[in-house]
Design brief:
By secondary structure, this protein is of the alpha+beta class. It has eight helices and ten strands.
């Protein structure tokens, strides 16, 4: 066993701030003191403080909001993805956690169908899909990029619908009378944010993301939609 191990200053500051968060000294969504103030408090350089803060951001304890400062993160959102469970919308998941779900439309397009989509939807090679991308937030904090694909002929009204701050599951049900009730295909893997994803999610380039690729079916087992979502790993947790 090694003795007299010197703990780096940034690590000491990091653990001190983490302990303050865990003890409730700093509450979720509360702004922590700025770097100059922390530097003076701990009698260290701003570079040392910055490293401690950046590591806490990477681990999900803090979040930097451009032009506003550094804040304590809200607790991670937990979502169960059991094979037999009925899919729960992000809006309802946030409600269960006492948070307000938000959605900002980034783009929507009419796109050609790809091979795996043809097979799932039972469409021909010339079919078209509606593609919707939104930024989903919880209490205003970015959580994931939502990418949804649906058959154009049935859901063409989505091209003009107001998709701000609403549940797409509920919108789909309003159009077709059907809701996601299960899945036939699901993969979950770790990836890293590319330049576009980092910019839209407000995270550093290369930030770890969960990539969830899932095929939803309705209560009759008929194909409904495909979701390809990118979640910020430090702000979301899947329960298997």
């Amino acid at each position: 066993m090694r003795e007299n191990v010197v703990v780096p200053l940034y690590q000491q500051i990091k653990e001190d701030i983490k302990a303050a968060i865990q003890s409730g000294k700093y509450q979720p969504k509360e702004k922590i003191p700025p770097e100059p103030e922390l530097s003076a408090e701990y009698s260290v350089s701003r570079i040392t403080v910055r490293r401690a803060v950046e590591e806490l951001c990477t681990e999900g304890y803090l979040v930097k909001l451009q032009g506003r400062g550094t804040f304590v993160s809200t607790p991670r959102i937990h979502r169960k993805i059991m094979e037999s469970s009925v899919p729960k919308s992000f809006t309802n998941t946030c409600r269960d956690h006492g948070m307000t779900a938000g959605a900002r439309l980034l783009q929507r397009q009419i796109v050609p169908v790809r091979q795996d989509e043809q097979e799932f939807f039972g469409l021909g090679p010339d079919a078209l899909l509606v593609y919707i991308q939104r930024l989903r937030t919880a209490d205003g904090q970015p959580i994931f990029l939502e990418n949804l694909f649906l058959p154009y002929e049935q859901y063409r009204s989505l091209m003009t619908a107001d998709l701000t701050d609403c549940s797409l599951f509920e919108t789909i049900a309003g159009i077709s009378g059907h809701s996601p009730s299960g899945t036939t295909y699901r993969t979950l893997e770790i990836t890293r944010a590319n330049a576009e994803q980092a910019q839209r999610l407000g995270v550093p380039l290369g930030e770890p993301l969960f990539y969830l690729n899932v095929h939803f079916v309705d209560e009759c087992g008929a194909p409904l939609c495909i979701g390809r979502q990118y979640y910020i790993g430090s702000r979301y947790m899947f329960e298997l």
